[in-house]
Design goal:
The protein has one domain (12-68). A two-stranded antiparallel sheet has the order 1-2. The chain contains four helices and two strands. The longest helix is centred in the middle third of the chain and has 9 residues, at 37-45. The chain has helices spanning 12-16, 29-32, 37-45, 64-68, and strands spanning 22-26, 49-53. By secondary structure, it is of the alpha+beta class.
C-alpha cells in the first residue's frame, strides 16, 4: 500500500523492484478522491504524479520497496486487505 500523503514520486520503488510492480505516473481522478488537504498539497507539488502499484499479483513481498522509499510511504499488506 502506498500512503498518498507521503509519496513524493522519487521512483526509488520503481528502480529497486525486481518484479516491475510500480510505476510513477499522474494519478487518475478516482485515485485522488478522499485525499486529505496534506495529500492534495503533496500531489499539487508533484504535478499529480505518484507511485502506483500496477501489478499487485507480481509482488513477492520482498520488502525492497519498503526499505528504498525515503518517505516511508510503502507498507506491505496481506493480499485482499
Amino acid at each position: 500500500m502506498i500512503d498518498r500523503k507521503r509519496c513524493e514520486a522519487k521512483e526509488d520503488c520503481v528502480q529497486v523492484c525486481p518484479y516491475d510492480v510500480f510505476e510513477v505516473r499522474v494519478l487518475f481522478p478516482e485515485e485522488r478522491t478522499g485525499l486529505s488537504l496534506r495529500g492534495r498539497l503533496n500531489l499539487l507539488v508533484r504535478r499529480n504524479r505518484q507511485a502506483v502499484v500496477v501489478a499487485p499479483d507480481e509482488c513477492h513481498a520482498c520488502g525492497l520497496c519498503v526499505t528504498a522509499c525515503p518517505e516511508r510511504a510503502i507498507r506491505l499488506t496481506p493480499r485482499g486487505a
